[in-house]
Design a protein that fits this description.
Shape: extended
Bound molecules: iron/sulfur cluster
Order of helices and strands: HHEHEEHEEH
Helix content: 25-40%
Mean pLDDT: 88
Distance between the termini: 50 Å
Low-confidence stretches: none
């Protein structure tokens, strides 16, 4: 489809269009305000607006929700990843960095000496999880990104972080992890500049 490149004069002036937009915003604002007041006065049962007061009010995530990544582990604590690079190849954001290393055990061909995800670039598409042939990477942690830093380096999750997330999930379970995440969010909300 090709867009018309010619704009009528009224659109070119922007004033009419901006006024129209303002009118729509005001209409929604007043409608929602009336609904909220009606609910407060007991004149209305239904929730006035669909907005959740996060983090005080939380929405249940669907079972297939894609949360923060984790690298899965064998029972003996070894990482399952075989450094095959399929996840990095499938990643549309090119935000997975892997360095394969020789494993001390001669029975194992290689393992990821370095495995990093730049979550600032990640679009949480889940392609890496789909691409992995050995179920070594998952996004079932149930929690969403929670780094709020001015330094882009803080958003890079290394192998140990991703492995620790699997241990935490195993020890605490998704509900407790989510609870801890929400406590953290409430803390940030109360004191956004605390280190
Ligand atoms: S979720 Fe998507 S963008 Fe993020 S690391 Fe995986 S493949 Fe890349
Ligand atoms: S996480 Fe899976 S797809 Fe990615 S390098 Fe490791 S084994 Fe391969």
């Amino acid at each position: 489809m090709r867009r018309s490149e010619k704009m009528p004069l009224l659109q070119k002036l922007y004033v009419v269009e901006a006024t129209k937009g303002l009118f729509v915003t005001c209409r929604h604002f007043i409608t929602n305000l009336v609904k909220v007041l009606a609910k407060m006065l007991g004149l209305r049962r239904a929730a006035p607006v669909a907005t959740y007061e996060y983090p005080d009010e939380i929405r249940s995530y669907p079972p297939r929700y894609r949360g923060r990544h984790r690298l899965t582990l064998y029972d003996d604590g070894r990482v399952k990843c075989t450094a095959c690079y399929l996840c990095a190849t499938a990643c549309p954001a090119k935000c997975i960095y892997i360095e394969a290393a020789e494993h001390p055990d001669s029975q194992i061909e290689k393992y990821p000496g370095r495995y990093e995800i730049d979550t600032l670039l990640c679009v949480y598409c889940g392609f890496c999880v789909e691409a992995c042939p050995v179920d070594a990477i998952r996004m079932d942690s149930g929690i969403h990104p929670e780094v709020y830093s001015g330094d882009p380096r803080d958003y890079i999750e290394d192998k140990e972080t991703l492995m620790q997330r699997s241990r935490d999930l195993d020890e605490k379970g998704p509900d407790l992890l989510r609870q801890m995440h929400l406590e953290k969010m409430r803390g940030i909300e109360k004191n956004p500049f605390a280190k």
